[in-house]
Amino acid sequence: MEFITDREALRQHYRAPGDGAVKKELRLLDRHATSFLARSPFVLIGSSDGKGNADVTPKGDRPGFVAVLDDATIAIPDRPGNNRLDTLENVVANPAVGLLFLIPGMNETLRINGDARITADIGLREQLAAEGKPPVTVMVVAIKAVYMHCAKAFMRSELWLPGTWPDRTSLPTLGQILHDQLALADNAEALDRSLDESYRKSMW
């Protein structure tokens, strides 16, 4: 198998992008992007460390949990998680991030690329508190590019159509997966109960 190793060789396999696909990229948030952020409860964050090791992590909360500080800056609170800090440690080493915002049921997405920094500023943390609990830190993103992404991936995958969803009971629970992968002594049912209890106590 041969692999494509340079941009020119890659471009030979594709048509040039349409004028609209190029011109739609903005440098600042407009009213449509701001409105999308106010309605989005979920974002995927792409990052990489100083050695090029990549990671994508989800962040979610109630719609509008990502704050617009101004038309060139947004803030993403870090709610309780597993404390691996994959994304945060990446950002400390390499500030470049790619963000993909979703609204349930909407096939179009909002993409934002920029440079991120991590702050524990108490004023910003209190501003982004949920259920009376401020985030431990906040990721502040200076925007370099913002644009809407077309619906094809979601249309092809039929992601939002319940009729295409698999029967959840046909899939293993996280407790079952962890039991098998880590050879844990606790049975899957006990692990699932422990996970459910953790979710109830540490959502915010």
Descriptive terms for the model:
7 strands; alpha+beta; 8 helices; 7-stranded antiparallel β-sheet; Split_barrel_FMN-bd; globular; Pyridox_Oxase_N; Pyridoxamine 5'-phosphate oxidase N-terminal domain-containing protein; 204 residues; 30% helix; 2 domains; Pyridox_Oxase_FMN-dep; Pnp Oxidase, Chain A
Report on the structure:
It is a single chain. The chain has 204 residues and is an alpha+beta fold. 30% of the residues lie in helices and 26% in strands. The chain contains 8 helices and 7 strands; from the N terminus they run αααββββαββαβααα. The chain has a 7-stranded antiparallel beta sheet with strand order 2-1-5-6-7-4-3, with helices on one face. Strand 3 and strand 4 form a beta hairpin. The protein is globular, with a radius of gyration of 20 Å. The termini are far apart. The model has no long low-confidence stretch (mean pLDDT 96).
Produce a short descriptive summary:
The chain folds into 2 domains: 15-157, Pnp Oxidase, Chain A (Roll), CATH 2.30.110.10; 166-201, no CATH class. It is built from 8 helices and 7 strands.
